[in-house]
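Morning!

This is the sequence you dropped in the shared folder:
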Amino acid sequence: MTLQEVVARFNTTPFLFAGSGITRRYYGLPDWVGLLTHFAEKVKNDQFAFRYYESKVSELEDSDKLPTIASYIEKDFNEAWFNNLPGIRSESENVQRSIAEGVSPFKAEIAEYINSISVVKNEYQEEVKKLQNIAKNNISGVITTNYDCFFEILFDGYKTFIGQDELVFSQLQGVAEIYKIHGSVRSPLSIVINKNDYHTFREKGKYLAAKLMTIFMEYPIVFIGYSISDSDIQEILGDVVECLPPEKVNSLQKRFIFIDYQKDTNDCEVSSHSLVINGKLIEMTKIILSDFGILYDALSAKKAALPVKLLRRFKDELCSFALTQQPGPTMQVAALDDGRIDENMLALSIGLASTGVYGLARAVNSEQWYRNIILHDSMYSCDKLLEYVYPELAKQNSWKLPVWYYIANSDYKSSLAESKAPHSYNDIVSEDSIKRNRTAIAGRTAMEIWTQEKTNVFKAIRLLGFLPEDKIDVEQYQQILETIFKENANILSSSNTSDRSSLKRMIRIYDFLLYRQKKTP
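The structure's back. Tokens below.
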């Protein structure tokens, strides 16, 4: 059997179950031992530091060794951090904020470290692009034990659930979703790494398995970035198998696809593989390859009828309506005895291009409005956005919505928009704000601030939002904003309130300086 034949027999687009091998490949991130070694050496300043901690757990079972080592390192690291020993603390504002909120310094610094080195390697740019392309229509979702944000950045429009509790207690739609079962660097407190974390995780394992059961029974599961003997996979599968009768276990055979990376393998090899979990035999298909692009090309042949993020949105709206009897902001509901609907037919409308003024006015939120000024990615024209969306959306945003881009690119005349739009720089940034930040800015240009501060993206964005008008080169501003959104197109919706406000201020400045000039004679 070929890989293409394996994919062809999928009943639907698959879920990826992704492990650390994915981001070791694309980002060069360390595995679990490598991560603990890095922090052990920071504590002890000794190349044999990890071996010291390893010697303390030699009597434990293999599955308990690394979590216990992590606990020992965490204890010593936190003590060194609070004593401010040299080489321990980073200068990150995110770390300082997390620790002020009660997060362990060890976990806060792990999150900062992973974020700081999460950059796609040049040699894998094309392969990563292939994965990003199939995320739109060919992947249903992702389950991962990785802490990093690789999939959140790459899979536009997917909803992320962080940690075991959020996954167990949330309403899942099973499409265009990312399940971070061991936590995320975006929430350092959620990271599962030490002995107590794993104890809690295992205690709740049955609840997680029950939540994932529908996914495992309805979708093909492609395990990628794991060793086939990985203890995390073994435990999760063990909990799932315990919940299933033997005949259901047999049905997993065609659903489980295990990607076995072997360096320098030409093309790929397809074979069967057996795994005994809790006394039950699980048959799966094993794919041996070294080029993951071959897998992504094969998966591109299995396509959902609609983009998966649209399917998720539709399922979410419909489920919410069924539970609350209240339609969401992008859903219109008519009574079944409505004369416009044939009594023998149920009509469902997906998309809002033809839903008229009412639908369009609620189809665009403020993050999409701001983003469109930089990426120009809205499916609606500036004329329609200005006429139907602006009045209500601007009112909701206290009339601070940037609008000169839409005015400059529209034939529709909106006296409301032009009257509410900023007409001076100080309508956006007050003189007092500029004075308060003058010392931090220190006479630097926009590009100098960005180049020197971009390791802390939101610090750079905050400073860029308080530059004096005469210090702003609009072309530099444009380059910086395009870079920010290229790295993360969903940065506005994924940021906290303070960071989002800073980025919005920067976009309002850019919108005013560039597009008001184009519209004004």
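Headline: The first helix runs from residue 3 to 8.

More detail when I'm at my desk.
O.
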